[in-house]
Specification:
Helix 2 crosses helix 8 and helix 3 packs parallel to helix 7. Strand 3, helix 3 and strand 4 form a beta-alpha-beta unit. This protein is α/β, with parallel strands linked by helices. Helices cover 32% and strands 20% of the residues. The chain starts with a helix and ends in a 7-residue tail after the last strand. The protein is built from eight helices and nine strands.
């Protein structure tokens, strides 16, 4: 316990909770503050001036992180016939139709991303109450409902990240690992923040980007100076 406490204190030594840091300094500090004995995940929290209860203020999208996520993404695909074969060849971990639906209904959800060919949506639609709350429901807007399932699988495996604003108006996303270089952490942060800015709904009034905080799994939150990302 004492060793853990010492690591926590040390991780906070160079970080002032009242200071706004440039995005480049944030990438440097978050890596230095990740002192756990495992490879901590780097997370970003983006507070937006939106009300997700209104359809015209929902923010969601997908972006490809240049340095990848550092995580082995398990992909499930709803497809039949040739599309199923293409998905398997592209590296999908689970491929099926009614059988996959039944497995999910039975509580078996050993995957991080769900993709579907358009003809599978009548089946997938029955799983809305299960997949929706977990952020796993395939959606054409983020490229997870597509006739080109192979490309979608490859994108998911290579570092494609979906983001969606929560009811509180915040987007949370993993953007890499503490073992990444500062340059890779910075590039990933720039990419996802840029994608969120680009996804700004036309119905939003006032300040859209309100706060950004970056942290590692066990490290302190580091607040970003918004003028360094716009």
């Amino acid at each position: 316990m004492a060793k853990l406490a010492k690591r926590v204190v040390k991780s906070r030594e160079n970080i002032d909770s009242d200071t706004l840091y440039s995005l480049a300094d944030t990438a440097k500090l978050v890596k230095a503050a990740a002192l756990a004995k495992f490879d901590e995940t780097i997370d970003v929290a983006i507070n937006l001036g939106v009300d997700p209860r209104h359809a015209d203020q929902m923010v969601r999208g997908v972006c490809n992180l240049p340095a990848g996520t550092g995580k082995d993404i398990r992909v499930a695909v709803f497809a039949r016939g040739d599309k199923a074969d293409e998905a398997k060849a592209a590296g999908a971990d689970i491929v099926g139709a009614e059988d996959l639906m039944e497995a999910i209904q039975g509580g078996k959800m050993d995957f991080d991303r769900c993709i579907a060919s358009p003809d599978m949506m009548p089946i997938v639609g029955r799983l809305g109450k299960i997949l929706g709350p977990r952020g796993l429901m395939p959606n054409p807007r983020v490229g997870t409902v597509t006739p080109n399932v192979a490309e979608a699988v490859k994108a998911a495996k290579s570092g494609s990240v979906e983001f969606r604003v929560e009811k509180t108006g915040i987007i949370h996303a993993g953007v890499g690992k503490a073992s990444f270089s500062e340059a890779d952490i910075l590039a990933n942060l720039q990419t996802i923040i840029g994608a969120v800015i680009k996804a700004k709904p036309s119905g939003v009034k006032g300040t859209y980007l309100q706060r950004i905080s970056v942290s590692s799994t066990m490290g302190p939150g580091i607040r970003v100076n918004l003028s360094t990302v716009a």
